[in-house]
Specification:
By secondary structure, the protein is an all-alpha fold. It has a single domain, classed as Serine Threonine Protein Phosphatase 5, Tetratricopeptide repeat (Alpha Horseshoe). It is built from 6 helices and no strands. Helix 3 runs antiparallel to helix 4. The protein is globular, with a radius of gyration of 13 Å. It starts with 7 loop residues before the first helix and ends with a helix.
Length: 103
């Protein structure tokens, strides 16, 4: 069962915990990425074959510094390569995924 996280601030507050709360796979990937577990986050994102999955995957390759691979995944997500910093994109992604999960 997914924990009811209502907003990005509540999601960020869980980052101090040793383990993530129950989250959708893509929110869990973002949680792991924020905690520095790129490999764990990437393992989740590459298994979610949706536009949102491609967006998280793109973000992770941007974090990794692989601009070419990130650009490929942004195209798959139907999104432009962002000009915001990584923290700003993490927030935008989390807000979008939280909104989608509350529907």
């Amino acid at each position: 069962m997914q924990t009811m996280i209502a907003n990005v601030d509540e999601l960020r507050a869980t980052l101090r915990d040793a383990n993530p709360p129950e989250l959708s796979p893509l929110l869990r990937a973002l949680w792991l990425a924020a905690r520095g577990d790129w490999d764990g986050a990437h393992a989740i994102a590459q298994d979610v074959d949706t536009r949102d999955g491609a967006w998280v995957h793109a973000y992770l390759h941007r974090v990794e510094g692989d601009a070419g691979n990130a650009a490929y995944w942004y195209r798959r997500a139907g999104r432009p390569v962002p000009t915001s910093d990584l923290a700003g994109e993490w927030t935008t992604l989390a807000e979008s995924l939280l909104t989608a999960s509350s529907r």
